[in-house]
Specification:
The chain has 192 residues and is of the alpha/beta class. Helix content is 24%, strand content 22%. It has helices at 35-40, 56-59, 62-69, 145-158, 178-191; strands at 2-4, 17-19, 25-27, 48-50, 73-75, 85-86, 92-95, 98-104, 113-117, 122-126, 165-168. A six-stranded mixed sheet has the order 1-2-3-4-5-6, covered by helices on one side. The protein is globular. GO terms for molecular function: hydrolase activity; metal ion binding.
Length: 192
């Protein structure tokens, strides 16, 4: 089961996905709201915290989650204060009941990861792509439009045709023909 714990939050935050199962995990921690109480309304314990990237709106709540659940974090950049365990491109991590392949997808931020499970038909895309073909900003530190286009193309090549949903860092998850939105994002980012 996947719950977006930030769905109705009226503050600047990223989406925060709680995935229950064999390995109960959080994908991103969000910012500017009490994520701990929202986690506790679903589960008693948390096994892992995965970070798509370390922009403040995705990691501000990391300390509170670490303290409340004595949980460690996984992300791309081992030098980051938010990352306890580095995750390499192509590495498989356990989220819920499924293995997810980590895809290093810089361009929005150099440490950006997407997590994709072929068996579950689910992708956590962070701020790489959004609904309706939108894509991550490249005007922040470490952002690069050409690199972002390459990363979106890499994501598209990695996804199977039977993909069911892309959970994004902001806004609604992509549940209808998600591969189409990735294709639109490629074209839009190339033009931008």
């Amino acid at each position: 089961m996947i719950h977006n714990l930030a769905r109705d939050v009226q503050a600047f935050t990223a989406n925060v996905f709680l995935v229950t199962g064999e390995t109960t995990a959080l994908v991103d921690a969000g910012a500017n709201f009490d994520v701990v109480s929202r986690i506790e309304s679903h589960v008693d314990d948390l096994d892992r915290l995965y970070l798509t990237h370390t922009h403040p709106d995705h990691v501000e709540n990391v300390a509170a989650v670490r303290d409340a659940f004595d949980v460690e974090t996984w992300g791309f950049d081992p030098e980051s204060e938010y990352v306890d365990h580095p995750v390499a491109d192509g590495e498989t991590v356990q989220i819920g009941d499924d293995g997810y392949e980590a895809l290093h997808t810089p361009g929005h931020k150099p440490d950006h990861l997407c997590f994709y499970s072929r068996s579950a038909g689910v992708c956590f895309a962070g701020d790489l792509v959004f609904a309706n073909g939108a894509f991550g900003r490249t005007d922040l530190e470490g952002g690069d439009r050409e690199t972002l286009v390459e990363s979106i193309e890499y994501l598209r090549r990695s996804l199977d045709e039977d993909l069911d949903v892309i959970h994004v860092g902001h806004g609604p998850s992509i549940t209808e023909r998600p591969l189409d939105d990735v294709g639109i994002a490629i074209r839009a980012a190339q033009l931008g």
